[in-house]
Amino acid sequence: MNNYILCLFLLNKGSKVREIYEQYNSIALAENTLVMRRSVGINEYVCKRYENAVTVFIKLLSEPDPRTTLMADICLVRAMLALDMNDRAKEIADMGFGRYVGMGDITAEVNRLRLKMNSAGKPQRSGGKKKKK
Questions:
Q1: Is position 133 within any domain?
Q2: What CATH code is carried by the domain that includes residue 53?
Q3: Is the CB of residue 28 less than 8 Å from the CB of residue 39?
Q4: Residues ≥6 apart with Cβ < 8 Å to 42
Q5: Which of 36, 53, 93, 115 could be disulfide-bonded to 97 (CB atoms 3.0-4.6 Å)?
Q6: Could you list the residue range(s) of the whole structural domain that residue 16 is in?
Q7: Does residue 6 lie in a domain region?
Q8: Does any domain span residue 123?
Q9: pTM for this predicted structure
Q10: Which among 104, 57, 50, 96 has a CA at the least distance from the CA of 76?
């Protein structure tokens, strides 16, 4: 169940994540594992409690077993971008996003996040024409 929640989150299906989390809360939270904590962090993000999500994902990244913290860096970067923590998000992405090459939808999400980080802080161009004098 927890991996299903992660997959939906990575595919930007936030409303479906919320629905599944609420419906199967007892299953998702059945045991106190790192994978369960990842689901809690995703739920915090979906509920727009980004500070809580960042805290959960940072704690996950400090765990020694990379199998249980899989893709927590993607979740963390997404939460940081929601809080306009662009510089810190870039640091996290530079440390771990290189391992997501050739992974289909995951690679696409990583590329989307990189694009969002690179465009953050740049002035937006208006689509209108310049006035002639």
A1: no
A2: 1.25.40
A3: yes
A4: 5, 6, 9, 17, 21, 53, 75
A5: 93
A6: 2-114
A7: yes
A8: no
A9: 0.76
A10: 57
